[in-house]
């Protein structure tokens, strides 16, 4: 990996702290579907706002906690309907946002099952928020990047998805 790719990978892993099997179990009124070229990943969709930012989380876990989690983080203000860029997570990107007016989403994805253990490192993409209503967001996203599975790297990956997310703070933990 290049130094920039390694930084995006390492910083992206910090977004994994927003994955939550407990919250996933409470988000029954939500839905996400992710197409990654293999079998679609279906799960719940939640968003939460904290002092760190706003986070959209698409996830599913079984009883043994195997599953997937995709986190898209936003360090700007309130979300509105529209299209937002998704950039690689890097300290230089965050610093540029502090002094500039442009904001981007940042993303990470992880899959952990008996058959797969991988991390999707986001290099670019977009998030389309179609609706914003009290307690909910809906839209679609497209991510481009590479997948790391142990020492194996697969370049040129793209994941797309749709979601109908519920406000996690109104639903549960």
Number of helices: 4
Poorly predicted runs are none
Give me the secondary-structure category.
alpha+beta
**Can you give the mean pLDDT?**
87
CA radius of gyration? 15 Å
How many strands, what sense, and barrel or not for the largest sheet? 9 strands, mixed
What is the β-strand count? Answer: 9
The secondary-structure element order is: HHEEEEEHEEEEH
Percent strand equals over 45%
Helical residue percent?
A: 10-25%
Our measurement of the CA-to-CA distance between the termini, rounded to an integer number of angstroms, reads: 36 Å
Shape: globular
3D structure, described in words:
The protein is an alpha+beta fold and 173 residues long. It has helices at residues 3-15, 21-26, 91-99, 168-171, and strands at residues 31-35, 41-50, 53-61, 67-74, 82-87, 105-112, 117-133, 136-149, 152-167. Strands 1, 2, 3, 4, 5, 6, 7, 8 and 9 form a nine-stranded mixed β-sheet that branches. Strand 7 and strand 8 form a beta hairpin. The model has no long low-confidence stretch (mean pLDDT 87).
């Amino acid at each position: 990996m290049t130094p920039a790719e390694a930084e995006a990978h390492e910083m992206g892993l910090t977004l994994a702290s927003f994955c939550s099997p407990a919250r996933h179990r409470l988000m029954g009124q939500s839905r996400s579907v992710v197409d990654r070229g293999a079998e679609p990943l279906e799960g719940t969709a939640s968003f939460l706002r904290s002092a760190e930012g706003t986070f959209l989380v698409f996830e599913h876990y079984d009883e043994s906690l195997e599953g997937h989690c995709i986190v898209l983080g936003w360090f700007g203000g309130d979300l509105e309907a529209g299209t937002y860029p998704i950039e690689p997570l890097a300290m230089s990107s965050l610093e540029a946002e502090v002094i500039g007016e442009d904001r981007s989403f940042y993303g990470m994805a992880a899959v952990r099952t008996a058959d797969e253990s991988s991390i999707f490192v986001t290099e670019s993409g977009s998030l389309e928020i179609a609706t914003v209503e009290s307690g909910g967001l809906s839209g679609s996203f497209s991510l481009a990047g590479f997948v790391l599975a142990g020492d194996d790297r697969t370049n040129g990956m793209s994941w797309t998805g749709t979601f109908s997310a519920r406000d996690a703070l109104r639903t549960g933990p």
